[in-house]
Write a structure and sequence with these properties.
With 572 residues, the protein is an alpha/beta fold. Helix content is 57%, strand content 11%. It is built from 26 helices and 14 strands. Helix 22 links the parallel strand 8 and strand 9. The longest helix is centred in the middle third of the chain and has 26 residues.
């Protein structure tokens, strides 16, 4: 019976070995016939199982934890020079962006995940490569074998270490200290001592002295080395994955010249190889090997010499690294979009580049299970929503914002059909006190809406999403300020979606806004919502009735009803 541990070691050699001739391979690695067959079957079964898992996962949500600090790295360090808008943290919070991202993300690699995050946060100022992207998305959807082949390549970059590849072209590298020449001198002395040792025994003491000094520098450099122990080995994997993906002619169209960038990176491949050795050392045999390797590196002070040599060369190749990163990331995102569309009820939007018209048929919020769908059309006027709490106003406003965002960045909307303009997105939905800066809710809202007014006049069409404007102040001033602000925001080809409980605003803004409302059915002992959008302003009021069915004291109910009737007469 063969040793299965031995077989597993041979199995690893099978995977990395490049000879296609089976008999030659068998002689080279010392396989017996039975061991070879077992290893071959293990490889076949592993690949078969992996392919089945990848096919089964297509169109489904990912089951993994999310580290947004690492996912955001590429986005936070990137210069967004050719975008219509970079979505603010405030708007992301209002749209539940992290939850949305976890729903949308079907990527297989960490660079793809980072590229998707950046893509969703940066709205492009014009359509780019839409036809090629859609062709590849359809190819991934229709050809499962091709899709699995690409997925298998991308899976090689699914480890946490791959998050750090972007730092190699986005962040400053360590610089050589001014005294670095001393390391070269020490390394030369070690070589010279070894060469002269057979002729002069006293050179042994020189060698020992240099070795002791080298230990200090070697340990000093360990911290520097740890900063790149993840990124540089993963860069080698990224380059290999990109090179494999380039073999497909359709994928190659994404960047026909990428092979030139890969060739440039190949110039530092040999120097980067020792990082790969460092990252793969494990097991008893490897520890012994590592011990001898450490002695060798200390003797010739190799680690700092190789590290700073590699960094110097990589610093001159930032553009090439970024091109490879974007190539792999884009492929993974297109595959993710294909999976998203397969698993959900989506549509490809029509993007109106000339006007600010919006039209949605059966639009829904993708994060709400069994969400009720609605139709809405925006032409010359903005939208003012009325209705009670929990009736669906805020969910609709968020659904509009999310669908405009995914439509402009992923060419995908959650609706039966949708037409949207190319437009910036700003929101004032979820506002809270800033206690650290001693700011009240109202003051925070004032600053947010002041920013919106500034953006409304910058010449770019904008979509403004607001929920219960100025609810932090008194009724008279809330209605007065609300009317003035909403009139200002609706100018200059902008579009506004705003909800309110103030029926008075519907009368003041009916010439500038289309009026819609949500309503509920109040029975003897329950309140039922249908979440259907209805035209016109809300006519019935049920707030006091809801108090009644929740067993508020009869005296409270009677007084509330009397005061409401009196206030209505006063307004008339």
């Amino acid at each position: 019976m063969p040793n299965h541990f031995h077989i597993l070691i041979k199995l690893k050699e099978v995977i990395v070995y490049k000879h296609s001739n089976a008999d030659r391979f068998k002689d080279t690695v010392g396989f017996e016939t039975e061991e070879y067959n077992i290893a071959h079957n293990m490889i076949f079964n592993f690949k078969k199982k992996q392919a089945e898992q990848l096919k089964a996962s297509f169109g489904k949500l990912k089951d993994e934890s999310y580290n947004f600090e690492l996912i955001e790295k590429y986005f936070r360090n990137k210069e967004h020079t050719e975008t219509l808008q970079v979505l603010s943290d405030k708007t992301c919070k209002d749209l539940d962006f992290e939850e949305l991202f976890m729903f949308l993300d079907r990527t297989h690699s960490k660079p793809g995940q980072q590229y998707l995050y950046n893509k969703l946060r940066a709205i492009p100022n014009k359509p780019t490569n839409v036809d090629l992207d859609e062709k590849l998305i359809h190819l991934f959807t229709d050809d499962s074998d091709f899709r699995v082949e690409v997925q298998t390549q991308l899976e090689k970059l699914k480890g946490r270490e791959a998050y750090f590849v972007s730092s190699l072209f986005q962040e400053a590298h360590l610089e050589q200290p001014k005294w670095f020449f001393i390391l070269r001198l020490l390394s030369f002395t070690s070589v010279l001592s070894l060469v002269l040792l057979p002729f002069n025994a006293q050179m042994f003491f020189v060698l020992i002295g240099v070795f002791i000094v080298n230990i200090c520098f070697h340990l000093w450099n360990k911290k520097n080395l740890s900063s790149y122990s993840d990124s540089i080995p993963q860069l080698m994997v990224l380059k290999r994955v990109a090179n494999n993906l380039l073999h497909n002619e359709e994928i190659k169209k994404i960047n026909p010249l990428l092979s030139e960038s890969i060739k440039i990176l190949d110039q530092v491949r040999n120097r980067m190889f020792f990082f790969k050795l460092e990252s793969k050392i494990e097991g008893d045999f490897q520890v012994i090997f590592w011990s001898f390797l450490e002695l060798f590196k200390i003797l010739f002070i190799l680690e700092p010499l190789l590290l700073f040599g590699v960094l110097k060369r990589l610093d001159c190749r930032r553009k090439e690294i970024e091109k490879v990163f974007i190539f792999v990331g884009r492929i993974d995102v297109l595959l993710s979009i294909a999976s998203l569309r397969k698993g959900g009820d989506c549509c490809i939007p029509k993007i109106d580049e000339e006007n600010s018209r919006m039209k949605a048929c059966e639009i829904y919020h993708p994060l709400i299970v069994n969400c009720v769908r609605n139709d809405i059309e925006v032409n010359d006027k903005s939208i003012l929503l009325t209705g009670s709490n929990m009736s669906g106003k805020t969910s609709l406003i968020r659904a509009i914002g999310i669908n405009v965002l995914t439509g402009l960045t992923m060419n995908t909307c959650f609706a039966k059909s949708m037409m949207i303009p190319r437009i910036c997105i700003y929101s004032a939905i979820r506002i809270s006190d800033d206690l650290m800066n001693d700011r009240s809710y109202y003051f925070e809202e004032v600053l947010t809406i002041k920013n919106m007014i500034d953006k409304s006049c910058n010449g770019k069409a904008s979509l403004f999403l607001l929920d219960e404007i100025f609810k932090g102040t008194n009724t008279v001033e809330r209605i007065s300020a609300g009317k003035a602000v909403l009139s200002a925001l609706a100018k200059n080809n902008n579009r506004v979606f705003v909800s309110t409980h103030d029926i008075e605003l519907t009368d003041l803004l009916e010439k500038e806004y289309e009026l819609y409302h949500f309503s509920e059915l109040v029975s003897d002992k329950s309140v039922d919502f249908d979440y259907k959008l209805k035209e016109g302003k809300l006519k019935n009021r049920n707030a006091i009735r809801i108090l009644e069915i929740n067993d508020f004291p009869e005296l409270v109910i009677k007084e509330a009803m009397a005061l409401a009737e009196e206030l209505d007469r006063t307004r008339l």
